[in-house]
């Protein structure tokens, strides 16, 4: 088994096919999208491949250490849509092929007009623990 | 064995051990082990309970006390051995019925002790008073079991020096129970129902109008639960809920408890909040809501708490009682950075007929919303208003 991160963000990916912002969908289209996402996670729980799924608030802050005895420095939020991480799902699957298959299904979530968004998702393998037997 | 029934014995069993001289932390561990063992060895009997002649365990509490005490002694002996001390023979009290008097109340105070952080107090209360396992609590709050176990044992260390026989402040207990009711995520435990069970148990032991107020508040909100979410999981706002799906028995009970509390003329914030919930429950249709009285209760709540969140909710009520312009005027006095400020402003602007401003503010509110259900709900409002605006636009 290997863990993969399906990351939904807007950094450098080409525009999806069905690129209509959610605020311009109908309420029914939003409901259909949410249902698709929930059903997807529920199905992966049943197959034993779901690990975690989280959505992130769009705004955050930058924080860094500022020296002994001083409070940390915070900066931001910098709300830039192109840099936004919307959320992620972690899956634990048997193969890279399976991970690609699932990412493809997640990307087919319906958007405007009930058509798949074809949204680009970044698929990143986790760096796992070192195996015991190496030779 | 009914798990709830079993768990309801937890605090009494725990206090028996403490009164026999066990320290709280060790006693709590022992009771947890006894509960786990009971769940394992007691056969599942559908209708059986304590006092039920068919039940294989005639005296579940006595059984738990015996097993927990043995676990406690085992742990202490193991500890003694580990430290290479001379073995001391523990004098085990003669087995017999546990005393009927209980200081469960003290346990509530201890678990909600002001030295604990809210998250620790919640976890300790659910385990030591609620009888939930660490695994169940961890799942309910979406943290790893080891993390929750650490949180609980740190909490026990924090209160280890607290005297068990001093009454605490009931307000701290109420805050913890309110948190349990209001914030929980998933898992196999219904935290809202659990909070109600623990508050009922508390109300049976302490005569305080705010305990009654909190219980009434929980019952009145719990009554709406089935109507609060659509089949697709989306939030249904109060005004749009199918009131036929509200639980009338819970409402009647909540109102009766509230009225008895209010009659004692010692108003507190939970009674005032419950009064607002009761006024909503009283309206057969949303349009029949007595908003004027609700505004008065928000005035009381503002006086009691000074909370800006209360004043935000008050602005909504003012908007319903005196019109959206009055609501917006009330809102204008508040800090725009308050959570849900944009959502309230959007709602009032829509009522005032300014759909474009409302759509913009709903989008801003969705951007700032603290949970996914609200993000989705607010985004739907933007979509709904945009559809209306597009339909109006001349082609």
UniProtKB/TrEMBL annotation, chain A:
Alphabetical list of PANTHER family matching this protein: BLL7171 PROTEIN, BLL7171 PROTEIN-RELATED
The protein's name: YCII-related domain-containing protein
Organism per entry: Streptomyces hoynatensis
SUPFAM superfamilies: Dimeric alpha+beta barrel (SSF54909)
Gene3D superfamilies, alphabetized: Dimeric alpha+beta barrel
Family of the protein in this entry: Belongs to the YciI family.
Domain YCII-related residue range list: 15-107
InterPro entries noted in UniProt: Dimeric_a/b-barrel, YCII
TrEMBL record, chain B:
InterPro entries named in the record: DUF6596, RNA_pol_sigma70_r2, RNA_pol_sigma70_r4_t2, RNA_pol_sigma_r2, RNA_pol_sigma_r3/r4-like, WH-like_DNA-bd_sf
Domain of life, source organism: Bacteria
Pfam family, one: Sigma70_r4_2
Transmembrane intervals: none
Gene3D superfamilies recorded: 1.10.1740.10, Winged helix-like DNA-binding domain superfamily/Winged helix DNA-binding domain
Annotated ranges, domain RNA polymerase sigma factor 70 region 4 type: 108-158
Presence of the UniProt keyword Transcription in the record: yes
Name under which the protein is recorded: RNA polymerase subunit sigma-24
Species of origin: Streptomyces hoynatensis
